[in-house]
Amino acid sequence: MSSAPQTVRVAADSTDQIEIAGRKYASRLLTGTGKYKDLEQTREATLAAGAEIVTVAIRRTNIGQDADQPNLLDVLPPDEFTILPNTAGCFNARDAIRTCQLARELLDGHTLVKLEVLGDEKTLFPHITETIHAARVLIDDGFDVMVYTNDDPIVARELADMGCVSVMPLAAPIGSGLGIQNRYNILSIVEDATVPIIVDAGVGTASDAAIAMELGCDGVLMNTAIAGARDPVLMASAMKKAVEAGREAFLAGRIPRKRYASASSPIDGTIA
Question: In whole numbers, what is the pLDDT of the chain averaged over residues?
Answer without folding.
Answer: 91
